[in-house]
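can u do me a favor
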């Protein structure tokens, strides 16, 4: 029996996938637990529409990233953070902080695209890599004591 999955189901498939499963599994487990719907033409059309919208949103987000990465080429940003006399920051700078600064100064940037291996804990100048689905860029940020 063909079903449209309403959520991720282990060893069967992901949400909005159209899968062929045994009749007993569909009737006794997936449909009563509201994990799947029968694959009627209407349900299949809805699932395909949702999947295509999700793909379009991903492409749009990657396009925004490419534009932001191009705008950041050669840009130098400054972030002020509380620190002691030796330059050690009281709070580490995370990917979310960098994404917020870039979004405020240059253009929209999601924190998931900031490839920061560990939080920055010392004042200074850093080149932060940005990566998204095969595209890459970088931003130079100066962490200044506040």
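np, heres the sequence
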């Amino acid at each position: 029996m063909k079903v449209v999955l309403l959520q991720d189901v282990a060893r069967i498939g992901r949400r909005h996938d159209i899968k062929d499963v045994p009749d007993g599994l569909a009737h006794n487990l997936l449909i009563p637990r509201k994990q799947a719907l029968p694959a009627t033409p209407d349900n299949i059309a809805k699932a395909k529409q949702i999947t295509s919208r999700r793909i379009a949103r991903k492409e749009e987000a990657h396009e925004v990233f490419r534009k932001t990465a191009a705008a950041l080429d050669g840009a130098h940003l400054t972030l002020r953070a509380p620190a002691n006399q030796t330059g050690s920051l009281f709070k580490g700078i995370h990917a979310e902080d960098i994404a917020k600064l870039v979004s405020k100064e240059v253009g929209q940037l999601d924190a998931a695209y900031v490839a920061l291996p560990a939080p920055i804990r010392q004042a200074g100048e850093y080149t932060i890599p940005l990566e998204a689905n095969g595209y890459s860029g970088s931003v130079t940020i100066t962490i200044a004591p506040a």
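Helices lie at 23-30, 41-72, 95-105. hope that helps!!
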